[in-house]
Specification:
Helix content is 8%, strand content 31%. It is mainly beta and 83 residues long. The strands form two sheets. It has a five-stranded mixed sheet with strand order 2-1-7-5-6, with helices on one face. The protein has a three-stranded mixed sheet with strand order 4-3-8, with no helix packed on it. A hairpin with a 2-residue loop joins strand 1 (2-5) and strand 2 (8-11).
Length: 83
């Protein structure tokens, strides 16, 4: 299985969450706050919204809750004031 993160191909395993694929690829963050602080997985159970990203054009998807699917197109998100 392979997904795309900001245009870069990233391999994964069937059944992994998007967060699991990204963490296994060495990515610890994939979103920034208004202040520019990096965010990734915090709670890992879908209670917070630190791990949100855009999946196949749908914004604010929690990476820890969404199972990755072959061909998913993932985009990082930014909440920075100047973004």
């Amino acid at each position: 299985m392979e997904i795309s993160i900001d245009g870069e191909a990233v391999p994964g395993l069937d059944g992994q969450t998007v967060a699991g694929v990204l963490l296994a690829a060495g990515r610890m963050s994939w979103r920034t706050t208004r202040s520019g602080a990096p965010r990734g997985v915090f709670c890992g159970i879908g209670a917070c919204f630190d791990c949100v990203l855009t999946v196949n054009g749908v914004p604010d998807v929690r990476a820890c809750r969404r199972r990755a699917a072959d061909g998913d197109e993932i985009r990082t998100q930014s909440r920075q004031e100047d973004a």
